[in-house]
Amino acid sequence: MTLAFSLSGIAKRYPHFALQDVSLDLPEGQVMGLVGVNGAGKTTLLRLLTGLAAPDSGEVQVLGHRLPEGQVDAKRDIGFASEDMRLYRGQTLRWHMDLVSRIYPGWDEPYADDLVKRFELRPEQVLGGFSHGQRVKALLLLCLARRPRLLLLDEPTTGLDPVARLEVLEALADVLRDESRSVLFSSHNTHDVEQLADSITFLHKGRLVASADKHAFVDSWRRVVCQGALPAGLDAWPEIASARANGSVVEIKARAWNDQLPARLAAQGLQVQRADPMALEDIFVTAVRSGGVA
Ligand SMILES: Nc1ncnc2c1ncn2[C@@H]1O[C@H](COP(=O)(O)OP(=O)(O)OP(=O)(O)O)[C@@H](O)[C@H]1O
């Protein structure tokens, strides 16, 4: 299996924050959603992969190149889009497109023109006059039309209105159909991740809380409604992320649902009435609150 990137035993410390013990692989052709609250360390992780930041310890490999030594080679095939990246406000979109096309031989002009139309951008307009949503789309266009092997997108849909968000998601979904391309995109929005990603990585306070195949991961969680009294120590079970009582109804969020769980709960005096699938948003909040995923 070829890896788009591999992070191994990474630590990166800032005065008030540390990314710790991060080991994470992305197989080539896969789309990974990186989910975390503000300040979880998502941008820091993406910057490590682009070589914009160096780890204090651990190893970073991108597209077969070890960073920092192989940074120049790796960067040729990485497309990084982040809101922090400044475009030239006084220059037109066409000027930016010409500039990027001269630097990157993989530039795909027909695809760039297609994205101009799809995003309803005006190539002759200077970027200083673009709205926030138009700037985000311009940045994505400049990144996507290079056809990089690895796309790193830092919150590509944040701040977009629903229509712009859908356009961006559709453009990304098109890109993702190409199986030789790999994507890591960060988001606060679990709906976007649920829609696009093959695998999900939760980051919280600089640590990986979970990283797994999306379907298997979502399928392992259940919201279990039981009748009975809440037994002590239930939330210490490794399969259980949270348990709370409301009168004689006990609600359990199980992170590792299995067929044996109802019988084990019955032995504690709890009768399982329902075990419902959970939305990714609910799983994320529960996982973060409970401090991890077994
Ligand atoms: N160059 C730096 N110097 C000092 N602290 C930094 C630096 N870069 C990031 N940090 C700190 O690291 C922490 C994680 O920041 P990061 O931007 O990686 O989080 P994030 O998950 O992307 O957050 P958000 O969703 O708000 O963008 C923050 O507390 C931030 O202040």
Automatic annotation (TrEMBL):
SMART domains: AAA. The keyword Transport applies. The keyword Ion transport does not apply. Pfam families: ABC_tran. Keywords: ATP-binding, Nucleotide-binding, Transport. It comes from the Bacteria. Residues 2-230 form the ABC transporter domain. GO terms for molecular function: ATP binding. This is ABC transporter ATP-binding protein. It comes from Luteimonas lutimaris.
